[in-house]
Amino acid sequence: MTINYTHQNFGEIDLGAHAEAAFCEYSKYVTQDRALPDIRDGLKPVHRRILFSMYELNNTFNKPYKKSARIIGDVLGKYHPHGDSACYGSLVRMTQPWVMSAPLADGQGNWGDTDKNSAAAMRYTEVRLSRVSNGLMDDLKTETVSWKPNYDGSEKEPEVLPARFPNLVINGVEGIGIGMASSIPPHHPVEAMNCVLALLEGRKSGEAVPTEKLMALMPAPDFPTGGVVYALENYQQVWELGQGSVRIRAEWEEELIEGRKCIVIKSLPYGVSPSDALIQVNQARRPHPETGQIALRGITGERDEGDSDGLRLVFEVNYGVEPEIALNELCNLPNSCFDISVSYNMNVIDQMEPVSIGLRQAFDRFIDFREDVVTKRSTKLLSDAKSRMHILDGFIKALDKMDQTIAMIRNNPKQSDAKAALIEFLEIDALQASKILEMTLGKLTQGEVSNYKREHEKCALEVADLEDILRNRSRLLDVIREETEAQIEIFLSETSEQGAKLYEMRRSQWTHEEMRLSKADQIPREYCSVILSQQGFTRRISAEELKEQRRGTQGTQQIELAKRDSIALATECFSHDVLAFVTSLGRIAFAKAYEIDTSLRGQHIHNLVKLDTAQDEKVIQIVSIEDEMVEHASQLQLVLATKRGMIKRTNFSLFNPKVSRTVKAIRLSEGDEVAFFGVNRESDVITLASSGNKVVRFTLSEIRETSRTSRGVMAMNLDCDAHIVSCSVVKAEAIERALIGFVSKSGQLKITQLAHYRQTKRKAKGVTAMKLAEKDQILSAFTLDESELQTLDVVSTSKKGKMNRVNLGSFRVMNRMTQGVKFVSMKDKDELISAYLVRGEKENPVDEIDEAIAPDSGQVTS
C-alpha cells in the first residue's frame, strides 16, 4: 500500500533554526547530565546514581560484597538508561586507588591495574561502598536535598548527595562535553578539609581568609600515584580563576647495581603506565628510522622490577653520564612519560548552569551547601523532636492518671468512643489519643513511665539545641566544623591492605624549585671540536676524546666517513657557544654547539641549518661566538672577508643569533666566497694571510661600517692566482706580546712574533709570511699571546679524516723568514685541510681566559 503525502499539511519550519535549537538542547543535556560534575558533591550523574543505588541496596562498607552486575543492572533499570559498559567503567574508576584520591567504592576481584589492563567483566567482580563514601550519604534520610523522578517516573533519585567533604576537590574529575570540558586534579583529603576548617573560622569571625593561607594549607595537588609536583608559579591563579597547570615528575633514586649506575623510578606521573614508559625509552634509544638520530644517549637498558610492593623501573646509565643528566634526558623526551603537565580547567554545574570556578570558589560553594544541608537537617530533626515531645506529653498525662485512663477505655464500647473520651478527659488532641490507644500493656509499668519522662527531657534539650542552631549562625558553623573534624578522623583512620595509614602524609611531594633542565643544562660545559665533511656530515668531539699526541704521528679517526667523503672544516669551540655557519652564498646561520651530534657517524648539516640546495649552497666556515658577545651585540662588529680580498664590517645587532634561520650577510661577486667571519671591536687589528705567502694587518676602523647585505671594500691587493686563506684578529694593545703561527698543507708549522710583520694600510700587498717548499701553500694562520705558548695545542685535520693534536710548547719562536718545522706526517698523498688552536688538556675549560688575543684561525676549502 502506498501512502500519498501530497495533500497532507505538515506545516513549515526553518531547518537552520530547528537544527540550531535541537543542537543547543542536546549540548545542554550532555553538559549538564553527563559531562560536568555538580559543584556541591563533585559527582557526575552516573557516579551519583551508582552510589545511591548501592546505598538503596544496603551495600555499605560493613556489609558483604555484592556482584557488580547486580549493581549495574539496578542502576540501568532504575536511574541511568545508557550503555552497561560505560556505566561499569564509571564504577571501576571509583574503586581504583591509583585513580581516585579517596576511592568511593571498595572492590573485590580483578579491577585492573596501573598498566591500564582492564577490569574483569562485571559478572566476576564484587563491590560495596567504601567507608569514606558514607560521608556522601549520611544525611539522605533527613530531607536535606531535593529529589526528582527517574527517567520513567517510577522511582525517585536525589538531585545531589549531601556530601560532608569536598569531593570535587579531593577526587577531582575529567569530563568532556560539547564546547566545554572539565579537568580537576585530585588533592589530599586532609589538606582539603583543613581548608574547609580555615574558611569556616573566617566566616565565624567575619574576616576574609587570604588565599595565601589556603595555599599554605593545600600547597599543591596530591596524586595517588605519587611523583613530585613543581612549576607552581600559576597555582594562585588556579585558586582564584580555576585555570592553569602544574607539572609532575617521576620520583627516582640512584642505585649502584652490579657496579653500574642505575636510575630507579619509584613512582610515575599520574595516569602514566609503566609499560608505556618502558616502550618510550626503548624506542628513544634506537636510531630514528628517517633521520638516524638517537634521542636518548644516557640510557643503555631498561627493565621492570616492580612487584606487589610497588613500582620499580630500572634504567641503566651509560658510562661517563651522570644519572641526573640521564634523568633529564628522559624527562625532556617528546611527550615524556616521566615529566608531564597537568591542567586545571574547572568547569562545573552550579544551579543547573555550567560555570567556571577557582579552588577558592569551590570551597566557598561547598560550605554554602553544607550550611544548607545542616539547616535542612536541623529543621527536619526539630520537627521530629517536637512531634515526639507532643506524643510523649500525651503518654505522660495518660500514665499520671493510669487507672482512670484504663477504666475509661474499658467502659467505652468502641475505639472511637474511647478516643473521644480520652481527648476530653486528658485535654489532648486526636494524634495523642490514637498513640495512647496503640500502647501495649507492657508500657504501663512504673519503669516505662520514668523512661517516657526522661525521653521527654531529652527531646526538650534536643529541641532547644536545634532551635539554637537554626537561630544562631555561629552555632551552625560550629556544627559544620565538628562534622568536618570527624570526617578528618575518618580519613586518618583509613588503612591500606598492608595496614599502613593512607592519608597521614601526602603521596606527592611538591617544590617551588624549577626541576626541568634545558638541553643546555644537560650538556657538560667543556671545550670541544666541531668537524664538517665535504658531503655535509658534522660531529662534535669533546676535548677528552681528542688526546694530545707527539710530533710526527698520524692522528686518530674521529668520524665515520662515507665512501669518497672527506673532512672539509674543523674548529674549536666551547660546548655552549653559538656557532655561526657561513655559506658559499654569503649567508649565515646560527646554532648552539651542543645541538651537534656527538656520535661517530655525526649528523647532516641540513638538520641544523637551512641551505639552498637548488643553488648548491654549502657551509664553508664555522666560527664560534661566546654567549657574552651575543648579549652585547650592539657594541660589536661582525667582520667578513672574502677569498678575493674583500672585507666588510656590520653592527652585530643587525643579526639575531638566538633565532635559527639563514640570513644574507654579504653580497658576493661571482666566484668569490667568504674566507673569514668574526665578531670583534672597531679598534681591533686584523691580520690576513694569502695563498701567495703574503701577510697584511691593519685596524678595523679603516673599514667603514655598512649594511647587512653590502659588498664591502678591498682588504688586500692579491696577486692574480692568490686568495685569502686565513684571517685572525688581535686587540691593539696586545700586538707587542702577540705571536703568529702559520701551518702549511704539507704539515709545516712556524711561530713568529707578530710585531715582525709591519702594520700596513688596507689594500696593501703585504709582506712575506714564511719560506715554503715548491708547490706548498699556507693553509692557515693563528694568533696567540706569548704567555699561552705552553697552554695551547694545535689540532690538524687531514683530507682522509686523520686528526692530530700537538702542544705549541714543542715549537720554538722563529724569525720571520724561516721555513718552520714538520709537526705532522702526511702519507699516501694526504694533505692537511684544517688547523686551529685549542686549550691544552690540563687547562680548566670553565676558567676565564685572556680575550686580548683570542686563538683564531681561518679555514680553507680544498
TrEMBL record:
Q: Name one GO molecular function term.
A: DNA binding
Provide the GO biological process annotations.
DNA topological change
Keyword Nuclease in annotation: no
Q: Record's Pfam families?
A: DNA_gyraseA_C, DNA_topoisoIV
Q: Supply the SMART domains for this chain.
A: TOP4c
Its EC number(s): 5.6.2.2
- Reaction(s) catalysed by this chain's protein: ATP-dependent breakage, passage and rejoining of double-stranded DNA
Write the record's keywords in alphabetical order, separated by commas.
Answer: DNA-binding, Isomerase, Topoisomerase
Positions of the catalytic residues: Y124
Keyword Nucleotide-binding in the entry? The reply is no
The protein in question is named DNA topoisomerase (ATP-hydrolyzing)
